[in-house]
Amino acid sequence: RLADLAPVTTDSLLALIALCNADPRTDKIDVGVGVYRDGEGSTPILNVVKDAERKLFETQETKSYLGMNGDARFTELLRPILLGEHAGDRAIQGLQTPGGCGALVLAFKLIKAANPDARVLVGTPTWPNHIPIIRGVGLEIVEYPYYDRDGCAIQFDAMLAALRSARSGDVALLHACCHNPTGADLSEQQWDQVVDAVVERGLLPMVDIAYQGLGRGLDEDAYGLRKLIANCDEVLAAQSCDKNFGVYRDRVGSLWIKTAAEESSTTAMKTVMQLAREMWSMPPDHGAAAVRIVLDDPATAAAWREELAGMRDRINSLRARFAAADPRLAFIADQYGMFSMLPLSKDQVLELREKHAIYMADSGRFNVVGMSDAAVDRFVSAVSTVLAG
Ligand code: PLP
Ligand code: TYF
């Protein structure tokens, strides 16, 4: 019976939003969930997106069905942004999905359909949502060491050794940039070695790219993905526009598949559409339509790149500010994207919550761009106090 269902552990990041909302203290700081906040501490809609939505409202003539791959022009316009020099390769095909999450589920379902015995190699730590998504699809997970939180460093040799000892056909889940939850990204040189290991072992690379443009830049953040594409016959990429267009709740993303030939990619695409049909049939239109309108005009596309650079610059300037404020936070300046991980015990995280009204994940992960400019000093001083205690 439904009444006999076992209790579930909820998404701890989403639970943290509710916990912080319920705190009556007016100076509370929410550095839990990953949304960009500006100097005033709010998450505004990008100007280009607001304008595109107005245009959409005024010009859209129908809401009849688009078809299973969603807005094909949206994926076509994303192609050069994501793929760079590989944009013309028709053995790489993409389709619109409900957010990066939709792309991840589809990708793992596709893997399960092609090779039910494939194991997924997942760096530790990774984005907590990866685990239930992979398990939900029924694939086995094998962890590889990625980041030593207390040493504030990537465990690169151990990572490489783990990839080199994997089974041919295993899947290597890799974060393209702005690693969530650590902010610790591979250097280009390290990417080159990872690509070599993936090729040598015959692994299937599965790239999660949810923050393109928020780290070093649009092209720089796609370095690893493009290098994999250049060297591997088969590559999967789950892409999200939710962060770099600030359209989180509209659920905008895409899945990209490369196989050795256009024909087999088309078959893989058809398989993926069949899988989508079993879940949501077609992705929601609104957010992707707004993104398409922005990218379809060179002037608004350039304006988006500027707004994106503004978000990136704010992230990096806050990183520099944390690093300058306390030598124990110096590592934050060498990392990218919205997150870094503080070497705090769970008790220290709770102390920040209870004594200082600062809400971060139990893991010590915090959103570096989660607070207003005015709150930075209070945040740093609370963290320094707790670290010293
Ligand atoms: N992958 C990573 C690493 C993320 O941090 C996120 C964040 O939401 C996603 C995928 C999914 O993105 P979306 O919100 O578009 O589903
Ligand atoms: O890690 C984060 O905070 C973002 C947002 O189920 C997020 O990626 C968190 C949980 C979730 C979906 C998105």
Q: What are the salient characteristics of this protein?
A:
13 helices; 2 domains; Aspartate Aminotransferase, domain 2; binds pyridoxal-5'-phosphate; globular; 389 residues; two-stranded parallel sheet; Aspartate Aminotransferase, domain 1; 15% strand; alpha/beta; binds (2S)-2-hydroxy-3-(4-hydroxyphenyl)propanoic acid
Could you provide a short overview of the structure?
This protein is an alpha/beta fold. It is built from 13 helices and 13 strands. It has 2 domains: 2-45 and 310-388, Aspartate Aminotransferase, domain 1; 51-298, Type I PLP-dependent aspartate aminotransferase-like (Major domain) (Aspartate Aminotransferase, domain 2).
Structural class: alpha/beta
Radius of gyration of CA atoms, rounded to a whole number? 21 Å
What is the tally of helical segments? 13
Name given to the CATH homologous superfamily of the largest domain = Type I PLP-dependent aspartate aminotransferase-like (Major domain)
Give the mean pLDDT: 96
Pfam families: Aminotran_1_2 (PF00155)
GO molecular function: identical protein binding; L-aspartate:2-oxoglutarate aminotransferase activity; L-tyrosine-2-oxoglutarate transaminase activity; pyridoxal phosphate binding
Domain Aminotransferase class I/classII large: 26-382
InterPro entries: Aminotransferase_I/II_large (IPR004839), Asp_trans (IPR000796), PyrdxlP-dep_Trfase (IPR015424), PyrdxlP-dep_Trfase_major (IPR015421), PyrdxlP-dep_Trfase_small (IPR015422)
